[in-house]
């Protein structure tokens, strides 16, 4: 979901190249009615590239298709869709990145297009805001448990169901001398560290904000419990745990030095692909729903969906062809050809082994990543202000006070608090 | 003809400085500052009109691409976003339906059309908790903690934390990189002519490598699984030793990287300067029985001093804006800089904070100016003395 900056910079260069080559890559007619231009902006991971390629296959004499897959999409989408006509006709989004587009009124309601061209969609794919369809979801995502079957077997353990079990298991694995540092987490200060907090806090059942206001409400027992759990886990992690983001985490996992971690579902396929991953680790890697926390009943992880939106500032003809191309991009046929790329929400998809975790999260009743307009500001505040705490230099109460001070300042400047 | 003659004489006279300008123009960032210092010379050498014709394209570009954006940033730093008009709506996604707070985008669009900049906030972007934190400072000093407690509380504020690393980086890396560059320049200068080319190439490699790539390479080498990290662990006999785990070691690695990557710039300038050292003075020093160290100390260093001022000027400006190594080394937990704060406000998140980023940018610019004032004053005095 979130790429490290370095990846993003490198990715930017690559996607520029990809952009140059992707136009008119294939020209199989997929029955698009009308003529126009399809310009897709998306994040850059395997599942989205699958969709982009399938949509690009719709290019004909009358329909041009271009796709730009880049980890920088969140920074590009606002300015690009504000222009008139917009730079892109399609913006692929997730729960969090749709918020700025909704706030800015940059995307159009899709009800008419769905009625005309959307017969292959399932009702739960339609993202409705205030009764209007604003996006079409096609995959679910989220962070969930990765575990090493061989190491758990040797230690005589079952995959942990709660963070309390996970900590106890880590101690057993360490004490038995199986692994020096059995745990890992994406604790790098920045987006990843904040996401760890958000995941666990969602699992406590607590609310981030006071009802119907932007007033922060995490300074409570739930918030402290989450921070204590995060810190307790670091005792079982490599000393440089502060430098691991999600992409780095998969490499650490691949090196075989970790037994338990929470990691993105979209990276699960790569972890068990013996062609790309370390075969010894890949064949022993198992997935399960994220653990619960503090006696809670739901997996402590945010649910995410990825979907597409259509820009407002474009001609209706472009919107119609863009919608049809995207429907082809996420058609049951496309998905059937790439079942392992993601946890698809599309009709006819049978989940494979890599989808167990995300489906487990959803079935366990995990909550979606919050869509409040000020959630992004809280995420920013968490991302920098928890650094000292997770490094072990500060107590939980002080850390929460710092987060509140930083968030309040940003929310005031953002017009959400007085 | 006469004018040509005086021009060439002036060039000879200002050989050292002209050279410095050439080196400065290779590094775009250094050029404006350097030009300011050396401008008055050239106006004496040609009519104002010719001078203006030469300088006009550059002035125009500076106005368009440097001055105007800075003015725009300064204006933005004085504004907050409009007060958000929120509505509650029913939203449904694959995981269920719920009531959700949303910004009323139609109502906001109307307000934004009337006042596109947002609401005027005076200097509050500068004084708030995430920047100068005046209120927090007041409380910290009133708390009556000892100087240690006060220092650690101040270092807890995001702006001062970043400022501390920025200043340490600036004042540690600039002189040490200059010393390193000077030593390399002396060494290369004594090499047989045949080996000088390859030696120069190798010496300026750190400057050629993109900062982000250079810091990534070093960061991977310092990883406990990398060559330097593993060697350090086995040398120290401590399998838990990791340069990326502790704050002190992270700072040391970043400073070392800074010296490594900044050294070559000083080297290039000093090496060029060494070619202009008058041989007769050197020879007479030798005849007088000066040792190698003495002729370096009393002939070479005084000759290169104007160049050193120029290098210090450029390097201070550059180092004050340190950014790439922090990202490359994933050092955000232990070290942040002013530029990193701007980046964090703008790029890495879902919500961009333009006012806050603009305020930090303006303070970075002010910081650079403060740093340069002593050097500029000194240069100006030296210059006026020589010319008049």
Topology record:
The complex is a heterodimer of chains A (418) and B (388).
Chain A: H1 5-22, E1 36-42, H2 46-56, E2 63-69, H3 73-82, E3 90-94, H4 98-103, H5 111-117, E4 126-129, E5 132-141, E6 143-148, H6 149-155, H7 163-175, E7 183-184, H8 191-204, H9 221-234, H10 246-254, E8 260-264, H11 268-271, H12 279-283, E9 285-288, E10 304-310, H13 316-329, H14 332-337, E11 343-344, H15 356-363, H16 375-385, H17 387-390, H18 396-413
Parallel strand pairs in A: 1-2, 1-3, 7-8
Antiparallel strand pairs in A: 3-10, 4-5, 5-10, 5-11, 6-8, 6-9
Chain B: H1 2-13, H2 15-26, H3 31-45, H4 48-76, E1 79-80, E2 86-93, E3 96-103, H5 105-114, E4 119-120, H6 124-127, H7 134-142, H8 147-154, H9 158-189, H10 193-208, H11 211-222, H12 227-236, H13 247-274, H14 279-287, H15 292-320, H16 324-328, H17 338-346, H18 354-387
Antiparallel strand pairs in B: 1-4, 2-3
Helix pairs in contact in B: 2-3, 2-13, 2-15, 4-18, 9-13, 9-15, 10-13, 13-15, 14-15, 15-18, 17-18
């Amino acid at each position: 979901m979130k790429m490290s900056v370095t990846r993003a910079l490198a990715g930017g260069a690559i996607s520029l190249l990809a952009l140059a080559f992707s136009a008119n890559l294939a020209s199989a007619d997929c029955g698009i009615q009308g003529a126009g231009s399809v310009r897709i902006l998306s994040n850059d991971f395997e599942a989205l590239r699958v969709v982009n390629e399938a949509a690009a296959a719709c290019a004909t004499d009358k329909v041009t298709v271009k796709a730009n897959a880049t980890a920088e999409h969140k920074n590009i989408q606002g300015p690009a869709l504000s222009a008139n006509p917009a730079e892109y006709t399609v913006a692929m989004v997730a729960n969090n990145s749709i918020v700025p587009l909704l706030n800015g009124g940059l995307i159009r309601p899709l009800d008419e297009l769905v009625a005309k061209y959307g017969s292959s969609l399932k009702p739960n794919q339609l993202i409705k805001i205030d009764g209007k369809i604003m996006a079409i979801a096609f995959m679910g995502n989220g962070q969930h448990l990765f575990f090493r079957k061989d190491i758990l077997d040797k230690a005589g353990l079952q995959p942990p169901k709660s963070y309390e079990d996970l900590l106890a298991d880590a101690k057993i694995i360490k004490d038995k001398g199986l692994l020096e540092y059995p745990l890992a987490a994406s604790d790098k200060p920045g987006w990843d560290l904040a996401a760890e907090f958000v995941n666990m806090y969602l699992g406590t059942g607590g609310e981030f904000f006071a009802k119907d206001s932007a007033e922060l409400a995490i300074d409570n027992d739930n918030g402290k419990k989450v921070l204590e759990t995060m810190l307790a886990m670091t005792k079982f992690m490599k000393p440089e745990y502060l430098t691991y983001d999600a992409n780095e985490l998969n490499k650490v996992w691949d090196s075989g030095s970790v037994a338990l971690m929470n990691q993105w579902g979209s990276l699960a396929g790569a972890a068990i692909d013996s062609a790309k991953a370390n075969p010894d680790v890949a064949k022993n890697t198992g997935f399960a729903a994220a653990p619960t926390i503090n006696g809670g009943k739901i997996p402590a992880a945010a649910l995410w969906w990825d979907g597409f939106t259509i820009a407002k500032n474009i001609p209706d003809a472009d919107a119609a062809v863009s919608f049809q191309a995207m429907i082809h991009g996420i058609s049951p046929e496309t998905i059937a050809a790439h079942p392992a790329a993601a946890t698809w929400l599309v009709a006819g998809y049978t989940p494979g082994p890599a989808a167990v975790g995300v489906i487990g999260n959803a079935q366990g009743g995990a909550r979606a990543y919050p869509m409040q307009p000020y959630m992004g500001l809280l995420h920013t505040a968490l991302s920098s202000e928890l650094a000292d705490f997770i490094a072990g230099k500060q107590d939980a109460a002080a850390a929460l006070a710092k987060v509140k001070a930083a968030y309040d300042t940003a929310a005031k400047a953002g017009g959400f608090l007085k | 003809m006469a004018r040509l003659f005086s021009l060439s004489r002036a060039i000879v006279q200002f050989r050292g400085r002209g050279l410095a300008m050439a080196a400065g123009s290779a590094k775009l960032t250094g050029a404006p500052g350097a030009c300011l210092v050396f401008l008055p010379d050239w106006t004496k050498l040609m009519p104002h009109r010719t001078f203006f014709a030469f300088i006009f394209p550059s002035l125009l570009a500076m106005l368009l691409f440097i001055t105007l954006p800075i003015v725009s940033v300064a204006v933005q730093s004085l504004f907050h976003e409009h007060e958000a008009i929120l509505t509650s709506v029913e939203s449904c996604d694959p995981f269920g339906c719920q009531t959700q707070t949303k910004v009323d985008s139609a109502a906001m669009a109307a307000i934004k059309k009337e006042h596109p900049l947002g609401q005027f906030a005076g200097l509050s972007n500068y004084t708030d908790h995430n920047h100068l934190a005046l209120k927090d400072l007041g409380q910290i000093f009133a708390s009556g903690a000892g100087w240690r407690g006060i220092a650690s509380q101040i270092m807890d504020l995001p702006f001062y934390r970043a400022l501390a690393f920025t200043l340490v980086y600036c004042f540690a890396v600039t002189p040490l990189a200059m010393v390193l560059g000077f030593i390399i320049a002396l060494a290369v200068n004594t090499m047989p002519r045949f080996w000088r080319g390859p030696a120069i190439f190798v010496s300026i490699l750190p400057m050629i490598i993109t900062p982000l790539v250079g810091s990534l390479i070093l960061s991977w080498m310092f990883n406990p699984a990398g060559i330097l990290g593993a060697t350090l662990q086995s040398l120290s006999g401590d399998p838990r030793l990791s340069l990326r785990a502790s704050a002190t070691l992270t700072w040391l690695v970043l400073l070392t990287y800074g010296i490594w990557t900044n050294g070559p710039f000083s080297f290039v300038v000093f090496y060029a300067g060494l070619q202009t050292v008058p041989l007769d003075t050197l020879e007479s020093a030798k005849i007088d029985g000066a040792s190698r160290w003495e002729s370096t100390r009393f002939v070479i260093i005084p000759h290169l001093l104007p160049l050193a001022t120029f290098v210090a000027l450029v390097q201070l400006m550059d180092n004050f804006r340190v950014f790439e190594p922090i990202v490359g080394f994933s050092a955000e937990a232990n070290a942040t800089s002013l530029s990193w704060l701007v980046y964090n406000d703008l790029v890495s998140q879902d919500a961009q904070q333009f006012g806050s980023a603009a305020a930090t940018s303006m303070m970075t610019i002010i910081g650079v100016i403060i740093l340069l004032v002593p050097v500029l004053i000194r240069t100006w005095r030296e210059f006026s003395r020589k010319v008049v």
